[in-house]
Amino acid sequence: MSDVKQFTYDELNEHKTRDSLWLTIHKKVYDVTAFLDEHPGGDEVLLEEAGRDGTEAFEDVGHSDEARDMLLKMYLGELKASEFAKNTTTAANGSAQSGAPAPSPVRFLMPVMVLIAWWVYRQYFA
Questions:
Q1: Residue 93 maps to which CATH number?
Q2: Three-class SS string for the chain?
Q3: Under-70 pLDDT residues of the chain
Q4: How many structural domains does the chain have?
Q5: Residue 1 domain-assigned?
Q6: What is the pTM of this model?
């Protein structure tokens, strides 16, 4: 049996205030309370992800190796596998636990449209 503490989303939700702030990144649970005032992006970023899976937000920013090493000091344990599976299932059904809206198709089409416009300009006006 593993000595690693296992957590549920219910337990994470009990810790989403400035006095006690937990979140999960890559299925690992971290207590980031002491880091609130030091976070370069401001405490609002951490408070927004409190009590839930912050993996996508963490990776989108592109944190440094130093930032990843800092997480080791804040490590509490792992998210229970059943909790992760539950979150993945709800996300696939369109009701992700994080509450974030699904990305708009325009977000993906915009770069393509810009490239097409550039190509047309080069063909006809350059």
A1: 3.10.120.10
A2: CCCCCEECHHHHHCCEECCEEEEEECCEEEECHHHCCCCCCCHHHHHHHCCCECHHHHHHHCCCHHHHHHHHHHEEEEECHHHHHHHHHHHHCCCCCCCCCCCCHHHHHHHHHHHHHHHHHHHHHC
A3: 1-2, 84-108
A4: 1
A5: no
A6: 0.63
